[in-house]
């Protein structure tokens, strides 16, 4: 089942906005512990998913598929961000 265009647009917007949020983060000393940063990023991700879930259209199965795709994309961005953060911590 292909995603509806509205859901594709919402996913693209969510990805763009989440990426902007991650790119705005400034790593500084004293640093937040890695476990705390993981919690923060997971909270941000859940916030975005819950926000966009309410806007998804179509049958429930369509909405679920769109939310799953959004979750996968945000998770990918999160992993990359947390890798950069771990490298920052190692450099201290």
TrEMBL record:
Alphabetical GO biological process terms: erythrocyte differentiation; protein folding; protein stabilization
Signal peptide: none
Record's keyword terms, sorted: Chaperone, Cytoplasm
InterPro entries: A_Hb_stabilising_prot, AHSP_sf
Compartments in which it is found: Cytoplasm
SUPFAM superfamilies linked to this entry: Alpha-hemoglobin stabilizing protein AHSP (SSF109751)
Gene Ontology cellular-component annotations: cytoplasm
GO molecular function term, any single one: hemoglobin binding
Entry-linked PANTHER family: ALPHA-HEMOGLOBIN-STABILIZING PROTEIN (PTHR15914:SF0)
Assembly and binders: Monomer. Forms a heterodimer with free alpha-hemoglobin. Does not bind beta-hemoglobin nor alpha(2)beta(2) hemoglobin A.
Family the entry assigns: Belongs to the AHSP family.
Protein name, UniProt field: Alpha-hemoglobin-stabilizing protein
Species lineage: Eukaryota, Metazoa, Chordata, Craniata, Vertebrata
């Amino acid at each position: 089942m292909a995603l509806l265009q509205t859901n594709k647009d919402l996913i693209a917007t969510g990805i763009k906005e989440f990426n902007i949020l991650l790119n705005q983060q400034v790593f500084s000393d004293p640093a937040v512990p890695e476990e705390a940063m993981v919690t923060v990023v997971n909270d941000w991700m859940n916030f975005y998913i819950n926000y966009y879930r309410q806007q998804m259209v179509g049958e429930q199965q369509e909405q679920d598929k769109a939310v799953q795709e959004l979750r996968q994309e945000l998770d990918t961005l999160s992993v990359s961000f947390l890798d950069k953060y771990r490298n920052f911590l190692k450099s201290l």
